[in-house]
Structure formats: C-alpha cells, structure tokens
Amino acid sequence: xxxxxSTSAKPALRxxxxxxxxxxxxxxxxxxxxxxxxxxxxxxxxxxxxxxxxGVAFCLRQFHGLITELVRGAWVRYIRQQNLAALGDAxxxxxxxxGSERANLSVVRGVLREVQEDECFYCGRDLRDTSDVxxxxxxxxxxxxxxHNFVLAHRKCNGAKSGRLASEEHLSAWVERxxxxxxxxxxxxxxxxxxxxxxxxxxxxRWAYSRTAxxxxxxxxxxxxxxxxxxxxxxxxxxxxxxxxxxxPSAPFR
Length: 254
Ligand SMILES: [Zn+2]
Hints:
The chain is mainly alpha-helical.
C-alpha cells in the first residue's frame, strides 16, 4: 500500500507535535534518571560525559539502519496510539516526523521475484510488470521497512489486502518462505543496503497476530473475502523452531 502526503492532515499533525513535545521531554527525563541504559554506558549519575561500553559504538554503527527503522517505527506507533481520534489512519506520520526519505522499496523487487519464482505471493498467479512490494505485516500496523517483511504481489491483490493482516494460510507461507530463503535474502538485503532482521520481523508478526487473536479480529484471504484467525494460529511459526533461525521469544516486540 502507498501513502501520499496528505495536506488535510497537517493541522492535526501540528496539534499532535505540540502535545508530543512536552510528553517526550518527560520521557527523556525518565531515561536520564532511571539508569535503564546501563547496557550502553556506565551510569555514574554525575558528570556531563558518557563513555560507551566496549563494542557499543561498533554495534550502533553496524546496525544503524535496523535500529533507526525500529525506533522510528515504535515512535510512529506510539504517537498514533496516543492520538487516534485526531489522526485516524490517514495521515502519513512517518513522513511528517522524519521527512520523505521513505525507502525505495523497488530495490528488493529482484530478490522477491526470485524467491517467489515470479508468482504473486497471495494468489500464486504469474506476476506482471505492475506488481507491488507489499508490507506483509501492514505498514499501518507496524511502520518499519525490514526486508523479510516484504512480499511481491499483484497491485490488485495488494490493494484488496490494504491495511489488513493476511490469513493464517498466508502467514504460514510467509514463515515457510523465510525459513527456506531467509538467510539468502538477508545477504542480498545487505548488498542492497536494506535494513533487515528476521528475528525482529518474526517478533513483530507474532505481536500483530496475537493482538488480532485477542480482539477476535478477522484476516484477509483474497479479494473481499475475510476469514477468522483460528485459535491455533501460532502453529504457523512452528517451522521456525525446527529451522536454523534464531529462537523467537513469545513476548511482543515493542
Ligand atoms: Zn495476486
């Protein structure tokens, strides 16, 4: 799905920005005073400088793209949750907060075509030139651009799915694809400069589906067909446990 700049949403966004400033200041004070960042540097509770622990600078540099995506995504989700009445789903908060540097998703088209063997991820029919790169866990649910979350689909299928979660059948196919091709896809994402973490993508998927399961929500199958999420939806993830992927804790990724 795509998001354009919405001029009608600007007053609401400015209102949110003003409200958010004070709240963010309180959060920063909380971080400064509770010492929860001890894993990054020793918190001496005094002085005007910090010294990063051994290896922290390397990791921050190495995983800069991934960390940026996750932090921005969490920030957008937080602000949207706190301002649902004012914003709804229409405003492109990501662009408002961080500028229009949204990733060019078309760079992953080649690797997705290869692992999907030129077939639409959702309907399985041959892809044509008008295919879309789709966020499997919808952008509106968790606004991050992580490589393993992308699938290639017909524009029509992508449009029909819109901001919904895909059915358990599609979820199983997504897990299967990442079990079979996840490592190779990761290497290609590195080459293309696309942020990725299969572990993080799976945690986000678990969180999104558990939220829908708790609410008794429906999922998208095809066209305008919605189906319930079965109680045993977590079985879709069992392949990951037996594969060589990292262990995935059941706690939501927040
Ligand atoms: Zn299709």
